[in-house]
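User: quick one, fold this
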Amino acid sequence: MYEAYLKSLSTNPLHACNAVCDTFFALHNPNSSATANRKKDYHKYIELYVILQTLFKKSNIQYKEPDLKDDIDHNISLIVNFFLESKKAIRKALDLQDTQELIEKYRAQYETNILSGFSYEFNEKQLADITALILQMQELIKQASSIEFVHKARLKASLERLKKSIHKNMPNMDRFWGLMFESRLVIKSDPNEAKPIIELMQKLANVFYQVISSSGDELPFKINNFLPTMDEKAENP
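Assistant:
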């Protein structure tokens, strides 16, 4: 029942877990009797419980597993409490994550201007081109059915981190190099889906190469040599 629902979840583990909790509480009516819930929604409770539990395991999030037994009314009570406690913990973790992302964003911006004295400078056209290319890649990766779920999540997360870090002055290219590394996962997918993603990645790399070159940095290799190619796909089917 929830196969399409799973595909709609965020690649951010905490946001995905939070969405599952919201789905559960949209289903659960605390004013209904346990008997009514058992007849109508018990299988959905179990399904959402397993989804949340699996997301926790996949993301190495610690949780206390409820002691479900052969009494459905008892199990419903435990599952509801499990979601209540999970929601509180997830909300706190999200608040911390949002705070850390804001600190990272402003630290990168102001350390460039105040401390380092050096930064990579992007003009308005370069910023617009980078944003447009990232959005196009995000859409292609979202639609690609041949990219494994874990690889897709890593690619989408890397693109999102790069998008959030882009501004006129950047102290380093760490997010860009991280994306270049993750982009090699694409060659494991279907060539028809991989080719347009790789082409966009190459265009993105060219923009960054312009900025790196204009800063006076010299790379010990051609930047496109760092990218995946369709030739690699043929060599590693």
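User: anything notable?
Assistant: Residues 3-95 form one domain.
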